[in-house]
Amino acid sequence: MFPDLFSVQGKTALVTGGSRGIGYMIAEGLLRAGARVYISSRKADACAEAEKELSQFGEITAIPADVSSEEQCQALIDEVAGRESAVLHILVNNAGATWGAPFDEFPDRAWDRVLGVNLKAPFTMTRLARPLLEAASATDDPARVINIGSIDGMIVPGFGNFSYSASKAAVHHLTRHLAAELSPSILVNAIAPGPFPSKMMEEPLKAIGDQLNEASPVGRIGRTEDIAAAAVYLSSRATNYMTGAVIPLDGGLSTTVGIRIGGE
Q1: Residue ranges for the chain with pLDDT beneath 50
Q2: 164 classed as catalytic
Q3: What's the fold here for domain 12-252?
């Protein structure tokens, strides 16, 4: 009845922090679904390696950029605009940073670094990409911004990642604010992932991976297809009537389990 409802065929997407982890998974999912994908990462060698690996799934271009810098954000947007005739259908603000330390030892620089990447950069990228997104928007299929939050911004984590959890809670509210500002031509939603295999989760998974599996109502951590499906869904016509939403993608950890993983 609705054969193209979940299609992203022919759309162009930009995924920040797309060389590894959740960003890489999202890029792979969008490529497999037929989108042309740009990814960015601070490290040129990581970009080159990810581009090589992801090319088996579709048309992929990697552009080195540090999104904590407004100048590099602008250069990234300009590069995409030049390659895509100033049109962009999907922006995924995924690049992130974290910092862990005991409360009494938590440094001020952890706030500057983490909020700069996790909160300021999504705002800056969205502001700079707005003309490209507006150009791609159609009445029956608006452009999309997808912000990657975290369940740590919804519940109190059992780790000393104070600036990270606060930044992700702020990303969720920024998503709502941007949704109000940019609708109806640009729809803005967020995904709040739980545990997924990534560089950021490497140490916690080593330490309490079994606990996370046991605590999850679905008995496991996230997989590539889980985050890929959520990103494709939010990028498609299936969500034309959704903006300002924050979707927990955590196997039910944040919504059904009343314990603090990793706490005492």
Answers
A1: 259-264
A2: yes
A3: Rossmann fold (3.40.50)
pLDDT per position as a tens digit, 211-227? 666 777 888 888 999 99
Does residue 193 have a cis bond before it (omega within 30 degrees)?
no
In terms of DSSP bridges, do strands 143-148 and 12-16 run parallel, antiparallel, or are they unpaired? Answer: unpaired
How many beta carbons lie within 10 A of that of residue 10, not counting itself?
A: 9
Length of the chain: 264
Domain range list for the chain: 12-252
Task: Record the tokens describing residue 95, joined without a space.
Answer: 């690049």
Catalytic residue among 38, 164, 233, 241: 164
HEC string for the chain: CCCCCCCCCCCEEEEECCCCHHHHHHHHHHHHCCCEEEEEECCHHHHHHHHHHHCCCCCEEEEECCCCCHHHHHHHHHHHHHHCCCCCCEEEECCCCCCCCCHHHCCCHHHHHHHHHHHHHHHHHHHHHHHHHHHHCECCECEEEEEECCHHHCCCCCCCCHHHHHHHHHHHHHHHHHHHHHCCCEEEEEEEECCCCCCCCHHHHHHHHHHHHHHCCCCCCCCHHHHHHHHHHHHCHHHCCCCCCEEEECCCHHHHCCCCCCCC
- pLDDT tens per residue, range 188-205: 999 999 988 766 666 666
Location of structure tokens 């065929």: 9
- C-alpha–C-alpha distance, residues 45 and 75, integer Å: 18
What type of residue sits at position 99?
Answer: W
